[in-house]
Amino acid sequence: MTEKNYQAWEVKESDYPLEGSTEDRLKFLLHYAILAPSGPNTQPWKFAISTNTISIYADLSRSLPFVDPSNRTLFMSVGCAIANLMVAGRHFGFKPRISFFPRGLESELVAEAKFERNEAPPEEEDDLFPQITRRYTIKHKFDDKPVDPAILEDLSSCLGPGFHLIYMTKNQEKEEMASLVTRAHHIQLADRNFRHNLGVWLRSNRTSDFDGMPLYTFGVPDWVAMAFPAVFREFDLSEAVIHRDSGLIRGCSAMAVLASDRDDRQAWTECGLMLERLFLRATSYDVRLSFFSQPIGLPELRQELALKLKQSFPQLLFGLGYSTPVKHTPRRPLDEVLIAQ
Ligand SMILES: Cc1cc2nc3c(=O)[nH]c(=O)nc-3n(C[C@H](O)[C@H](O)[C@H](O)COP(=O)(O)O)c2cc1C
Question: Whose CA is nearest to atom 3 of ligand 1?
Fold first, then answer.
C-alpha cells in the first residue's frame, strides 16, 4: 500500500465528480494543483473555494528567510500550482479566467481563478494534463542523450510576452554555469543560517513527512540519508554539493535561464506558471528538468548572469535532459491546504 504522504499522486481522473456541485468539481481540480513542484518542496499554497471561484493564497508561514528572503522562489512555486490548476480546469471542460493580485501586490491573495463552462471542444493543450502526475524533478544524474533542438524550441513557446528563455548547449557555456553555481554554494553553505534554513527541508529516504526533499531524489543511499540532514545543518558540505551539481550541469543536454522584464510578486508568479507549463510540455517528451536556484538568490551573481545574458531579471537556472525515473516526493493532503472562504 502507498504510504500516506505519497497518496496524493494516486489521483484518478475517473473520480472526477461529474454529478457533483461546482464546488465539488473545483475541489477535485485542486488534487492536481498540489502536485506542482515547489522550492524545497515547501508547498507554500492555500486555496479557498467559493461557488465558481478558487482563491489562491501564498502561505508565507512556509517561507525560507535566509534562503529566499524576498520570497521570489515561493511565489514562483505558487505560480506552478496555478499552472496545474489551469491545465486541470481546461481538461475537465472549464474556461478558467485568472486575475492576479486582485487586492494588490502586498496581499497574500496571489490570484483568483473563475471557472466557467467551456462550450468549445477541449483545447489543444490538453496533452499537458496527463503529464501532471508523470512530472518530477531530476536531482541526481542525466543520461548521456541529447535533447532534439526542435524540442527545445517547442518548449520556448510556453512563454508569454515579457518572459524569455535562453539556452546554453555548448560545453564552455555549461562550464561557466557550473562555476557560477559553485561560487554560490561556497558563499551560501558557509553561512550557518542558510544551512539551517535549507537543512530543515531535507528528509531521510523513508520519511513519513508530507513535505520536504527526501534524499533519494539526490541519489543519497539510505544509510547516509539518515544522518545527512543534521550533518548538513552543522557543517559546510559545499564540496560534496558542488561535486553533485557540477556533474548534473556538465551532464545535462542544455542549460537554460528563465528571465523576465519585471521583478515583482506578480512577475515571479507568472514565471512559475510558465515554468510549470514548460515542465509539463518537457515531460510529454520524457525530457526532465533540474533546478539551480543558488546563483539567482545572490544579488551580485544574479547581476553577473543578467549582464552575461543581456536580460533584466534572471529568475531560474535549470538543466534539461533525459534521466531514469525517480520516485515522487511527498505531498500534503488537500484538506491541509484548503481554507474556508
Ligand atoms: C521555483 C523553484 C525553485 C527550485 N529550486 C531548486 C533548487 O535550487 N535546487 C533543487 O535541487 N531543486 C529545486 N527545485 C525543485 C524542488 O526541490 C522540487 O520541485 C520539490 O522537491 C518537489 O519535487 P518534484 O518536483 O519532483 O515533485 C525548485 C522548484 C521550484 C518550483
Answer: 39
Is 130 found in the same domain as 227? no
**Candidates 268, 278, 291, 315: which one to mutate for ligand 1, based on the most atoms within 8 Å of Cβ?**
291
Residue 298 pLDDT level (bands cut at 50, 70, 90): very high
For 86-110, write each residue's pLDDT tens digit.
Answer: 999 999 999 999 999 999 999 999 9
Task: Say whether both 213 and 67 belong to one domain.
Answer: no
pTM given for the model: 0.97
Q: Tell me, using a 6 A CB cutoff, whether residue 204 lines ligand 1.
A: no
The one-letter amino acid code at 203 reads R
Domain that holds residue 164: 149-321
Q: Which of 209, 217, 216 is nearest to 332 (CA)?
A: 209
* CB-based burial label for 101 (10 Å; 0-12, 13-18, 19+): middle
Q: Is the pLDDT of residue 118 over 90?
A: no
CATH classification at residue 248: 3.40.109.10
Neighbours of 199 (CB within 10 A): 19
Q: Are 73 and 39 in contact (CB under 8 A)?
A: yes
Q: Residue 117 — very low, low, confident or very high, per pLDDT cuts 50/70/90?
A: confident
